Amino acid sequence: MKMRQRMKKHSMKFISLFLSIFLWAYVLNSEKVRFEKTLMLEYILPEDMMFAVKAPKEVTFIIEGPRAFVRSIVDREDHLVIDLNRANSKRELSFNVDINPAQLALPFGMVVERVSPRRIPIRLERKASKIVPLRAQFIGNLPEKLSLIKPELQPSEVEVYGPRSVIASLKYLPTRPIDLEPLVGQENVPVEVALSDDRLSLPSDSKVTFKYQLKATSGNLTLKDIPIKFLTRSKINDTKIKFATLKLLVPEKVLKNRSKISSTIQVWADIPENAKGQVTVPLKVVLPPSMHLLEISPKTIIVNIQ
Asked: Which of 145, 173, 274, 286 has the most beta carbons within 10 angstroms of its beta carbon?
């Protein structure tokens, strides 16, 4: 009997404690609080229009309601879409768009006290396009004794889209700075066009390449008797010259292994297909990326082909 009374007494204490915690949590979560919810704005522009002045990118709602719902609203990824085709049915270039508090869906008991900004000024401008030349910009330096020759941007001009007032004053577009130091060992690199205004845009398929050649201003190594290899399907009857002499610019660390340099170099005579008789063929040199050709002798050879 005493055991039952003790269990009943402890059960009542547990129930009282549980009810106390429940009531405390209920009162705490029912307490009204004020908080902010910031939404990103997305605009749908008419096809032939652009912003003349950048429009606000976000709007803030001041909300009041039970604490219990605050986290679910704050953590929610909301955004507002503003269709300027509907908001500007009269096709005006300057007008305002009102933000309606009801545009933000809220649980029962939550209310929007204020919206900032409540009214968004919109300034539009006709869209235009123009073909403008490109201009390369550089940073850094080439290794000593190397110079840049035949630099070329392909294409040399691009079509750019943007607000009519910006497009009208546009004379050229620069590239993003091209670092000269990594150019060694290559013949072309992709580059990006630098747009001075984020309202400007290029066609999605625009690709610009910087093509160039590097020339050694002086050499530090001369190699003689490099065998000439022939690239042909025809039978070569006779050629008097079978070796070439090269003047090169070689990095100092490569120059230390001078005995291995010749094995990394190839000289080719590319015979034209279907060539017959006596043919003058230019010589081509294949070098490792770190080496640079200053001079080849001879530049061409005469080959008799059957």
From this structure: 173
Q: What is the mean pLDDT of residues 227-249?
A: 81
pLDDT value at position 22? 45
pTM of the model: 0.57
* Alpha helix stretches (DSSP H) within the chain: 2-30, 70-74, 84-87, 164-168, 252-255, 258-261
pLDDT at residue 19, as a whole number: 52
The two tokens of residue 33 are 């609080």
SS3 94: strand
CATH number of the domain residue 301 falls in: 2.170.120.30
CA 154 to chain centre: 18
Q: What's the rounded mean pLDDT across residues 179-198?
A: 86
Q: Which residues contact 195 (CB under 8 A, 6 or more apart)?
A: 160, 173, 201, 202
| Judgement on whether residues 198 and 238 belong to the same structural domain of the protein | no
Query: Does residue 18 fall inside a structural domain?
Result: no
- Contact (CB, 8 A) for 56 and 117: yes
| Alpha carbon separation from 235 to 161, 185, 243, 274 (Å, rounded) | 57, 34, 19, 11
228 and 286 within one domain: yes
Gap between the Cα atoms of 140 and 143, Å rounded: 10
- DSSP string covering 208-269, please? EEEEEEEEESS-SEEEEEEEEEEE-SSPEEE-S--EEEEEEE--HHHHTTHHHHGGG-EEEE
| Token couple for 195 | 């747009």
Q: How many Å apart are CA 302 and CA 242, to the nearest integer?
A: 10
CB 61 within 8 A of CB 36: yes
The size of the chain, in residues, is 306
- Residue 98 is predicted with a pLDDT of 92
Q: Which of 261, 266, 269 is nearest to 285 (CA)?
A: 266
Are both 78 and 122 inside the same structural domain? yes
